Amino acid sequence: MPYVAAKFDMVGSRKLRSRREVQKRFLHLADEINLKFAEHLAAEFVVTHGDEAQVLLPASKAKMVFRIFEYLSLSMVEVDMRCGVGTGTISTDLQEKSIGMDGEVWQHAKDAIEYAKRKRQIISFFGFAPELQLHLNALGNLLCYLQGRWTKEQLEAICLLSKGHTQKEIAEKLEISQVAVSKRLTGAGWHHYVRGRESLELLLGSDPVTG
User: Fold this and answer.
1) How do residues 175-187 score in pLDDT, each as one tens digit?
2) How would you class 111 by CB atoms within 10 Å of its CB: exposed for 0-12, middle for 13-18, buried for 19 or more?
């Protein structure tokens, strides 16, 4: 059975003055992610080291891998996150948590995050069909680059929107007008971002495993 695995790490976390607090937040987010994305996971998201984590999804749920990274990135704005995504099979028994397993999917995820480190990319895909992989890498990094340009005020609105709040509710929470919320989203290029994300998810849902 084919899977998609993702590895995550914090960029330059050792230089953070509040590293311990950030690591605690990382652990707390693992519980949030496992609850929010439970129906899409083959094995639970787990923090493997203080600054690293990984997750396993069935290939049929591959399109959700970017949503998980997005949720993680938007929840950890105090530090830059990096992601490596691989596809393939596992050679060991499936575990409840994304640890203690082996196989090509994990090797591809490892290759992907190491490539991202070498090339200074935010996200990298490995093990996919060559042309598909090219498009995934280009579009994925473009979306992440756009994320990185959002202001604090834009992020406030986007984080609430991504958690299911309406623009009216966001306006009430932030004590601003709905027009101001709309301006923040427009200034962030949110609608363009959403369409780009939909395209990435369509690509990920198009039989990603090369075989």
Assistant:
1) 999 999 999 999 9
2) middle
